[in-house]
Amino acid sequence: MTIEVLFLNEMTVLNVAEHNEQAGSCPLCGKDNGCAVLTGKPIEACWCSTAGFPREIFALIPPEERGKACICSECLRAFKENQTF
Fold first, then answer.
1. Which of 8, 18, 40, 70 is the most buried (most CB within 10 A)?
2. pTM
3. From CA 36, how far away is CA 11, in angstroms rounded?
């Protein structure tokens, strides 16, 4: 099975941070997503800037929650290990 991996960019993270007070919570588990941009750091300082996100993980986010917050590293790790959450 081939998994397409996406990398987030600064515009994606900044749009989330600017438009949502819940941007610090993972949309899958509700825990802190560790977003460095929300703390005023540059995108390069965030863990997600070098993490690859399989496209399939985004389908797990409820439609009404998409684009409002970043997935946390624990959910990403669990998905990559199990191909499910």
1. 70
2. 0.74
3. 14
